[in-house]
Amino acid sequence: MLQLVLFNLFNGLIIGAFYVLLALGLSMILNLSNVINFAHGNFLALGGYLAYVLIPYIGFWPSLLIAPLLTGVVGLIIEQTMIRRIYGRDPIYSLLLTFGLAFMIQDACRYIWGVNGLPLATPPSISRPLSTEFFFLTGYRVFVVGIVIVAVAALFMFLRFTRMGMRIRAGVFDLETVSALGINVKLLRSLNFAGGIFLAGLAGVLAGGQIGLNPNMGDSLLLPSFIAIIVGGMGSLVGTLLGGLLIGVAAAITTVFFASASDTVIYVIMALVLLLRPRGLLGEEGIL
Amino acid sequence: MSAMLEVRNVSKHFGNLVAVKDVSLRVAKGELRAIIGPNGAGKTTFFNLITGFFAPSSGEIFFDGRNVTRLTAPQRVKIGMARTFQITEVFPELSVNENVRIAAEVTAGYALSPWLSAERGRSIEQTVAGLVERVGLADKSQRAVGELAHGDQRAAEIAMALALRPRLLLLDEPTAGMGEQETYQIAGLIRKLHRDESYTIILVEHDMRVVFHLADRISVLDQGMLLADGTPDEIAADRAVQEAYLGKAA
Amino acid sequence: MRPGGDTTAALRGAAERRWAVLAGIWVVLIAAPFWLPLVHGYTSLGSRILVLGLAAMSVNFLIGFTGVVSFGHAAYFGLGVYGAGMMLRYVTASTPLALVAGILLGGGAGVVVGAMICRSRGIYFAMITIAFEQIFYYIAYKWDSVTGGYDGLRGFQRAPIHFGLFTLDIKHSDLAFYYFVLVVFAIVAGVMGFLLRSPFGRTLLAIRENERRARFLGIAVDLHIWLSFSISAFCIGAAGALYAMVNNFSDPSSLYFDLSGDLVIMAVMGGIRSFWGPLLGAAIFEVLQDYISSRTVNWLFFIGLVFVIVVMFFPRGLLGMFQRRRAA
Prior knowledge:
Chain A is mostly helical. Chain A contains eleven helices and no strands. Chain C is 73% helix and 1% strand. In chain C, helix 3 (43-66) runs parallel beside helix 8 (174-196) and helix 5 (95-117) packs antiparallel against helix 11. The longest helix of chain C has 27 residues, at 221-247. At the A-C interface, helix 4, helix 9 and helix 11 of A face helix 6, helix 12 and helix 14 of C.
């Protein structure tokens, strides 16, 4: 029993880690640009496929960094050519735009790499089980959790200690003032967008190594990521982090006792939070 | 004469900053009172205290004998204190008629009505046509307010305020940012509402020509305190006011 | 008090134009089964467009006329689909009851969800509507024994309607069904149009235009948004019920947020500031989708491209480009 609980807890942690990576990027873009990026899950898939292309040439470790960077560049290009033109307009337009982009990226991936799943080769050094008793502790899964922790820590350090990061945080609270201080808001938003997409790309490489690649691989993660943001509280990245972990772990623990309700619990948590704390666990005053 | 508005020892602090300090004043029924003062004198804060956008830190506000200190802004609107805003607040894509009509219908208690009887509809339409006529927009009543010139937008906003059937009209810098022609238009409109229709009006205003031309009495704020209070002639002769305004008066 | 003579004439002109346009629209709709074959269409395509058009118009009641963006309205559409489907499948083969069931299920859910979310605004409102939609999709997907789960609910058919003296056989006659759909469409669209021209409807426009101003006029903004959300959910529930009868099938994808996106793009394509725009948008989108998917396997890419092009180049929609402003 203990083993089962631990197994599922760890599973929850992994899935929660993916939610966190995806939701943090979504949340960054949402907070600073007021855009819900429906294409976020498709950027995740793109990141995985780019790693698939790169690995035969440069190997896994460099690809782990380069593929997300390239995904971020693609994101930056899309932001520069399309998304920035709808900033400040009615939210309906950003929703429709990223909705359309989601279809386009998904179909482009399918066109280029095919409908069937592709495996993403991971180095043998991290693919072995670490323990015979706790068989689920494969090196790769521990590695995923480790990378996510590093990435999240780096993100929060960046936001707290660098000038650009502090400007981004200030922009979330009061974009007008930041703009009035002569800070280039457009540049800030572009880099922030690219950063969010980078995280999606990273999640894509990690997920590809675990479950393989397919054009729809991000779809099942996108909506839980929305829920992570709502539960954590919109406007707060720490909230998003908590929200992602909470729903990942809650769903996994539910699996132990009541397997068929494991997905349901996510929605129950969301409804409860919205009823009891409409702004989310750590939501900012005034957003709701 | 009984007071339409009475402010008793009102102060407002923001943290350590004292924006308004122990101000008292009485505005009589039918009076047109101007509130002036140099930049940063606390005019806007004081105006927001009267209209209910802020609650005062101390002191009390009475409207027509009723203590309104704790009422919210919409509650004050309901009992007859209507305001306009420094930056025009209208429904830009809707026509002048629709703008005024919405205000009139909400005031008449029809905000949730899915339909109006023909009789009530006609009565509202007459009210609206009358208001639009009074502010001089009859020939533009079908045009979107957002497309109108600045002065006409302000006139539309005043018509909306009038549709609330106010007993006190509060105008926050009604000629701010306007050219010569538009300033005349709005000053003329305010004068008409005051002289011909005997509205009680309080206005905060920068343009001294408008103030001295229109006001029955003037209150001067400086550094959050009431510096002087009197007729335009008394204020013009007041030494303290001249000092506060040295080089600033238009 | 008498408005100038010019204004009266202009007003009368505008009113006459409006009646002419309205009459034109209804002539086109009533005659559709006769002109559709001339443009390689068919009657049941007409029914389908009418239903999706009604759904898009319901969404637009909220988006275009209240200024609140729901991106999860497929939930109430889909609940309409399942309400009608389950009534026909499990309870009784009665078309009117199926319609009522769809309206109540979709609208009832809208009332509950609307109450929970009517205090949030903007992009956050949209996000929460998506999350709630996912809940309903998930229920339909998981509750196999009742909803048919992934495969959807089959095994029902729309039933002929008995009027005592005669029977309208909408089961076998596409033509009869089209006119049945048109009558329901007329009633629901009529209700929305009527409300939008009422004092309540004008408060919604006020909220769309300037929420702060509306609040200081004394409009209880949250309450009005909730009511608008609920009304729009009842209306789209009716569309959903009709959709179940169009297909004789309750499909879980009718609850999925992809459909919400389709409904919103229909509204935007036609013009969200216009009452009839979403119907036009639905017609164009459906025809375009049929055409694209018959020409290429990569149809999804091109549908996405349609979304992008509309947003970038035609944000005001077709009717928005023609009519610079709705006559008052």
